[in-house]
Amino acid sequence: MDWLFALLGGYLLGSIPFGLLLTTMAGKGDIRAIGSGNIGATNVLRTGSKGLAAATLLLDGAKGFIAVWLAWRYVPAAAPLAALGAVLGHCFPVWLRFRGGKGVATTLGVCLGLAWPVGLAYAVVWLAMLAVTRISSVSGMSAAAAAPIAASTTGRVDFMLFLAAIALVVVWLHRENIARLRAGTEPRVGRKE
Fold this sequence. Notes:
The chain is mainly α. The protein has one domain (about 1-185). The protein has ten helices and no strands. It has helices at about 1-15, 20-25, 40-45, 50-75, 80-90, 105-115, 115-135, 135-155, 160-175, 175-185. Helix 1 (about 1-15) packs parallel to helix 5 and helix 4 (about 50-75) packs parallel to helix 6. The radius of gyration is 16 Å and the shape is globular. The chain starts with a helix and ends in a 10-residue tail after the last helix.
């Protein structure tokens, strides 16, 4: 039951739609009717507010971190399940008919919560790929793919399968981005679509 509570608790925390809440409170309308239609920071940036996008990024990461931190505190063995639950909650929130974000910022939060070296590797890959390509989807998918590798090389093999599952979810949710990358039409950060 503890494992189930960790998974569900992570899911509920992860399902808080900060992007939608912040843009609505700021009078920017329903973020789901803008750009890609998802609730993550990259789409919030399309409202023209860097501040709201940064706040969404931080809060989406924080909810992943808090889910894992709570699990470490009360059910340590279930921390990876709380991590998985938080990402699934962000990507498939029950409140929004299971249509949420793509999990990149929340995955950063859970990686930092599970093991800071894994979180650091995730952040470095994310920022490096963003600096090189200026393409948000490439940086997010690269970072997610790097997480299980970082876990294996930093002695956290126990997290590998969970992080690999999370990476698969993140990449699967970017399938439309992958199609645009192959067609050469994927937008770059800082440019109008």
